[in-house]
């Protein structure tokens, strides 16, 4: 059975999902397909009144269902049923995901939707296995660290992996006993509305998952600054993360988890398996056309093998199959918008003006939609815009080094510290250099996240605070209370 579909046949939901049902709202923004630039549907913009209504619905659902107080295994069962429904509805979810996003349909269904279901199951199992602690005190006292949910978690997700990013937020928050008010990107809003519908069908009490559509300045600010939101979780750019921190500070104090931008290095030592390294590096920059926060966009290679590595990369870059996201044969994504396409073009041009050489690519592809050719730049300095800026496109820089210390110096970025990759057969070198890299995640002889959801993700420096995934994400959705009893 073919996974390809006709985008004109997809009926996208329009409105907000509040209190367990879709609430109609007038579209204000056009949602365009990046594959061909056609407007697929409209997106409303929730104002403060709509956000107030959603927060009230979330609080009412928490109170009526006692979701945070019920036997934890009840939450586990409901979340497993939610994951089962996500898998059962994978085709429709995948189509809603792919039609207006950068995610090819084959990758949406087999990758993103499947991973989302597994994330929900993963976090569900924490609900009855993580709790408080008894702590050592004097023998005439009993000391406890109690654990409880926050209440309503405000979650904001980006456009590059809409459904799986929603899973990052919904899974730990719901498992920990919270309600969620989710705002997806206004460019890719539709799969989140379907997730909210599936949560109700799965038996999660209506109103615990609310989705409001809108932009950052209006809807995002209303959520992050709302007094009824107890915690904020955001994935997106470093600039937007800083704006959220400022908005929270203006309106009150609340905890935040921020997974932000990156400009991740990949160091290839002379003893590396070059075919393995080339495979990993190509996937790390070509996946989703480089529109990935963990994209390995800076290759730092030992001088003696840099040319051989470049030849291997060029062969892999030539094997792409760009196409519409609704075509199952597509393996190379469009850029999300013409605006972002122009930004990529501008940064590459600025890098060339600063002395960079284009080895391949360096231009938009001549076809409908927003596509940019896979690009490799050499002769770049640490000050080059291609090295300093998070491009969020399929643009790779290649720098050579002579000694280990030079490689580490080139890898260190003044702003970002999200991820890094290392390629070497020397275990001692791998451990030594991984400990010195300023990054929240280091991959050795591989690049990219796995389905081992137990590994947390999060950045150093301007790449964020707190962790998504792993035990840390669950615990970040609960707060602790110290209790001391005199016996």
- CATH topology name of the largest domain, in short, is Aldehyde Dehydrogenase, Chain A, domain 1
Oligomer: single chain
Overall pLDDT = 97
Instruction: Give the structural class.
Output: alpha/beta
Domains, number: 2
N-to-C CA distance: 68 Å
For this structure, what is the CATH homologous superfamily of the largest domain?
Aldehyde Dehydrogenase, Chain A, domain 1
How are the secondary structure elements laid out?
Blueprint: E1 16-18, E2 21-23, E3 29-32, E4 39-43, H1 48-65, H2 72-88, H3 90-100, H4 105-124, E5 133-135, E6 141-149, E7 152-156, H5 162-175, E8 179-183, H6 190-201, E9 209-211, H7 216-224, E10 231-235, H8 238-251, E11 256-259, E12 265-268, H9 274-286, E13 298-302, H10 306-317, H11 338-353, E14 357-360, E15 375-378, H12 385-388, E16 395-401, H13 404-411, E17 416-417, E18 419-423, H14 427-436, E19 441-444, E20 460-461, E21 464-465, H15 470-475, E22 478-486
Parallel strand pairs: 7-8, 7-10, 8-9, 10-11, 12-13, 12-18, 13-16, 15-16, 18-19
Antiparallel strand pairs: 1-2, 3-4, 5-6, 6-22, 11-21, 14-15, 17-20
